[in-house]
Specification:
This protein has a single domain, classed as TIM Barrel (Alpha-Beta Barrel), CATH 3.20.20. Helix 3 crosses helix 4. It is an alpha/beta fold.
Length: about 280
């Protein structure tokens, strides 16, 4: 049985995310722990975090995953942005610990005029600072990006290089996003292409560091650099590609979380059902 879920809202109270995931038939799910589009946030109160952990225990689903907000840029050369980004990462690691959430997913950012090498160094430095006082029990998952201009983390080798610079590497793992990988030039449309791409992943990073897949189809063509998610099987990766990912022997037992649209074509429940059909 495939373990599949979606990103759900925390509107009203963070513990309501669990019931929303359950209503959609999720085996696993992802949330933002706060507003993803701003720097300001309300501290987690004990009652909310306790309600979340109780709801998780009662639901029988998991793992829950938290995604970092959108604004942090760990490769930024602007001092204010960089310091805010490091602080945001430190806060999110602590919030995950309070919620008993084991995985925090983060994008790495975009480098400035100094170039990609300096960007990778700045990302590693930011992570090292944030992890110094981070509570135990939370893994930071570095997510591959879609190949946008100046992005850090689109190349698997770049992620491997950054991990090699982390002081406390046992706290680091990777989230592989299929839409981002395809947009960055990693083919996923056939069983052979999926095998080649994940052989490269194993060579550059290692399967032991892969606990989670973001399973998204994509509107953009191979190597387009376009980060536009599409319904499962209806994009450029297509049903054969998604099926090949789900059936890959090193991936089939991982949790798959979708960040697909909800529109007149299909909703979260429909995408979950389609994944289960393709995985059967």
């Amino acid at each position: 049985m495939v373990s599949v879920g979606v990103h759900v809202s925390i509107a009203g109270s963070i513990d309501r995310a669990v019931s929303r995931a359950t209503e959609r038939g999720c085996d696993t799910f992802q949330i933002f722990s706060r507003n993803p589009r701003g720097w300001r946030y309300k501290p987690l109160i004990h009652e909310s975090s306790s309600a979340f952990t109780r709801a998780m225990a009662a639901s029988g689903i998991g793992p829950a995953v938290v995604h970092m907000p959108y604004l942090p840029n760990f490769a930024s050369e602007k001092d204010i942005i960089y310091s805010q980004s490091v602080e945001s990462l430190s806060v999110e690691l602590s919030r995950c610990a309070d919620l008993h959430v084991p995985f925090l997913v983060t994008h790495l950012g975009h480098h400035g005029p100094s170039g990609k090498e300096d960007g990778r160094r700045r990302v590693a430095d930011a992570i090292n600072i944030a992890l110094e006082d981070a509570p135990a029990g939370v893994f930071l998952l570095l997510e591959n990006t879609a190949g946008e201009k100046n992005s850090v983390g689109s190349d698997l080798a770049d992620i491997g290089d950054i991990i090699g610079r982390i002081h406390d590497q046992k706290r680091i793992k990777v989230c592989f996003d299929t839409c981002h990988a395809f947009a960055a030039g990693y083919d996923l449309r056939t069983p052979e292409a999926v095998g080649e791409t994940f052989d490269r992943f194993d060579s550059e990073i290692g399967f032991d560091l892969l606990p989670l897949i973001h399973l998204n189809d994509t509107k953009g063509r191979l190597g387009s650099g376009l980060d536009r998610h599409e319904h499962i099987g209806l994009g450029q990766i297509g049903e054969e590609g998604i099926r090949s990912i789900l059936h890959h022997p090193r991936l089939r037992n991982l949790p798959f979380i979708m960040e697909t649209p909800e529109d007149d074509t299909r909703d979260d429940i429909g995408n979950i059902a389609r994944v289960r059909q393709l995985a059967a």
